[in-house]
Amino acid sequence: MKIPIVNEKDEVIAYKEREETTREDIRRIVGLNVFNEKGEVLIAKRHSIKVIDPNKWGPAVAGTVDEGHDYDSTVIKEAEEEIGLKNIKPIFLKKMFYETHNTRRFTGVYYAVINSRETKLSLQVDEVSEIKWISISELEDWFKEKPEDFIPSFYRTMENVKEISTILKI
């Protein structure tokens, strides 16, 4: 499946196979921050076979927007595929642009609140090796002490988690 390549205004300018993209190509991705009834946030550990950032912790759900999809449909699809989260209505927070040493991306940032006692999650084993519910303060402390445990852009995830926690008053 091809992925859309966009310009600096997030307008589609081409479609490429994922393997054919370069660092200069701007991709679209989504991130979903999941919270539970206790105010904890769900984080996911990327599988060891992942090409980018294997064995690193990141948001509960993240994925690339494929041809024929948009941010909204992708976040719902990825939530079900990666952690088995079905029938959710994710709330759009914002769209951000960022660059790392190996990529340039527009990210659609979303959040959802679920009842973790009643929601069964199941991992897509080739994507996610582990998930963990954690309090925001514990996550902040862990990230400060061992940032190498997390994807390079996790500081943005922490900013989003804090922003969402203010919205949710947790």
TrEMBL record:
Database matches in Gene3D superfamilies: Nucleoside Triphosphate Pyrophosphohydrolase
Q: Which SUPFAM superfamilies match?
A: Nudix
Annotated Nudix hydrolase domain residues = 25-156
Q: A GO molecular-function term, please?
A: catalytic activity
Q: Which Pfam families match?
A: NUDIX
The record's section on PANTHER family has: ISOPENTENYL-DIPHOSPHATE DELTA-ISOMERASE
UniProt-recorded name of the protein: Nudix hydrolase domain-containing protein
- The organism named in the record is Candidatus Nomurabacteria bacterium RIFCSPHIGHO2_01_FULL_42_16
| Source species taxonomy | Bacteria, Candidatus Nomuraibacteriota
